[in-house]
Write a structure and sequence with these properties.
Layout: H1 3-14, H2 18-41, H3 45-64, H4 71-93, H5 99-117, E1 132-139, E2 142-149
Antiparallel strand pairs: 1-2
Helix pairs in contact: 2-3, 2-5, 3-4, 4-5
């Protein structure tokens, strides 16, 4: 994932409620899976493993925040366990192990949560967020870039 994509996802997350963050998390996983596909097609095993590992980290994050007071969480956990197994096998074997099935599943979950997010009128998780401006500063060590909040 490029720095620009990371910045775009970060900005979206800072303005999102919980349901929208789940949608964005699925998009991040899909992005890493697409990148892994390109890497393996180009015989770049190092980038493939890195992208699969990142996708797995985000799947694990989704599974770690499930609320088991709701029946759907058990269903989601089963899906996440399947995805994690495929991702882990791919990472360890350094080859594609059902990554297309994992991607398809993540797309369907993203689409479902996107539908739900349209009905979720809750406020953004980061309500106290401030506008961020990027600019140049001068200091002892010369010129540098700094993030300034206003």
């Amino acid at each position: 994932m490029t720095k620009e994509e990371i910045n775009q996802f970060s900005m979206r997350i800072s303005q999102s409620n919980r349901t929208q963050i789940v949608v964005i998390t699925y998009e991040i996983i899909i992005n890493y899976l697409d990148s892994a596909r390109k890497s393996i097609d180009n015989s770049n095993v190092t980038d493939f493993v890195r992208d699969v590992r990142k996708a797995r980290q985000f799947v694990n994050e989704l599974s770690s925040v499930l609320d088991f007071r709701y029946k759907i969480s058990f269903e989601l956990m089963n899906l996440y366990m399947f995805a994690n197994e495929c991702l882990l096998k791919s990472e360890l074997r350094r080859e594609d192990v059902d990554l297309e099935a994992v991607r398809d599943m993540m797309v369907k979950l993203r689409d479902s949560f996107e539908t739900v997010s349209k009905q979720d009128n809750s406020k953004p998780v980061m309500q106290a967020r401030e506008k961020v401006y990027e600019g140049l500063t001068y200091g002892k060590n010369g010129m540098g870039t700094v993030m300034v909040s206003k």
